Known about the structure:
Elements (H helix, E strand, L loop, with lengths): L1 H17 L13 E3 L16 E3 L2 E3 L3 E3 L7 H17 L3 E2 L4 H5 L5 H9 L5 E6 H6 L3 H10 L4 E6 L1 H6 L10 H11 L4 E5 L6 H5 L8 E3 L8 H11 L3 H9 L7 H11 L4 E5 L5 H10 L3 E4 L1 H32 L5 H4 L4 E3 L1 H9 L10
Parallel strand pairs: 4-11, 5-6, 6-7, 7-8, 8-9, 9-10, 10-11
Antiparallel strand pairs: 1-12, 2-3
Helix pairs in contact: 1-10, 1-14, 2-4, 2-14, 10-11, 13-14
The structure holds flavin mononucleotide (FMN).
Amino acid sequence: MSLGISTRKDDHIVLSVKEDVSSRLSTLLEDVILVHHTIPSCSLSEVDVSAEFLGIGVSAPVMISGMTGGSALAEKINAALATVAQRLGIPVGVGSQRAALEDKSLARTFSVVRRVAPDVPVVANIGASQVAQGLSEAQVLELVEMVGANALAVHLNPLQEALQPEGEPSARGFLDRLRELVRLSPVPVILKQTGEGFSKEAAALVRGTGVRGIDVGGAGGTSFAVIEGLRARMRGLDDLEEMSRTFSAWGVPTAASILEVRAVLPDIFLIASGGLRTGVDVAKALRLGADFAGFARPVLQALYQGGVDAAERYLRRVISELRVAIFLTGGCSLKDLRSAPVVLKGLLKEWVSQRGLARPGAGL
Ligand SMILES: Cc1cc2nc3c(=O)[nH]c(=O)nc-3n(C[C@H](O)[C@H](O)[C@H](O)COP(=O)(O)O)c2cc1C
């Protein structure tokens, strides 16, 4: 059983670095314009991007999203990602720990992250299907303790489950089990999508569950429909390949998803991920209402192309770009960025209007 999960996870990694597995939708961040302010109010070196991740101080509001674990390759990647996170002082997530619940010998492929990154927030990870089936208190503690986690992410991936021959596309009883998980978990629980985003209707269901954070995991970046389509092709499963293609343009684009979630959960800790590629993307996501920004595939690609140093350089550049974007919008801090002038255009403007969402900055 665990061998099956590990092979599948390795397929995801290899396809992510070797193929174009981007959603056929865009994030709609291109429809967000941060208004340039030509008389900055401080020097660039004074711009402060230090942030908090669920109450823990970190050097920037940027994290490495959970991707992997459960195989020898995954262990190497997790060690490398943890090295980058530790060097930069930013949070790092692991991929689904389901395989390690089923086969204890795989735990070290996840726990390597905490060993290598002792000083940064680490986010544990489990799938909604496992939560819906019910996790015992011992299993919840095992997930958290395995990586010395500061938070536990529950990933929702109904599209991927629907497209996998081995998938478990059922969330029956999920919300009740989620409440139970929040009660059992010694650390805050985050609900996370993996590339199709959250609507306000879905986000509203999170009210009253005790969940502390939402990672929108919006459309416009890595698409598991595309990844599963490529896996289906490799195995000659023509119908599944075709179905995956059909759904490769499905989901709530990341920019829209931030606004959707914020409309109904004004105080939740909100992580933007899905197709963020630059520090300007981060600045736009924060301006729309996110507290934090997550990066997955581009970090993996940088790692594949140039090792730990290249992945570190990539994220260092993202953080520098964020500082410059704050500087150029006339601010000196993340707080200033959150009230910087912004213009929405195109499909995002249309989305805001049809969905009855507040424009960011309305009432400023
Ligand atoms: C190879 C790969 C494996 C992933 N595995 C997981 C996972 O196990 N659990 C999870 O919550 N998200 C997983 N993700 C999703 C990412 O955390 C992230 O939400 C998504 O890739 C969008 O970000 P991106 O466009 O920057 O890649 C994975 C992503 C990639 C590329």
